[in-house]
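Fold this sequence, please.
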Amino acid sequence: MVAVKVSNSKGDLTDGVIPLDVMVAQTSFCILSVCKLGELGWTTSIGKKGCSMIHESSGMKAVDVSIWHDTPWLHASPYDGTDEKF
């Protein structure tokens, strides 16, 4: 599981967690599958102004999403067991 920052429609920030197996050994980067995120209810959009990730059923939007080398990247942290699951 990975912890992510998300915001609601009012812009209020909260911590959330995405149940993904993403860590590979001691790599310093998390590799997330856009297909797997889609199966979990996330929509990833990429356009001229960057990219976004929105969890469809909750309406929560991932906060730290960016484009690097034509690939969406999401800042994620290790899960500590206290965040809301998406």
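The CA atoms of residues 20 and 36 lie 8 Å apart. Residues 34-39 form the longest helix (6 residues).
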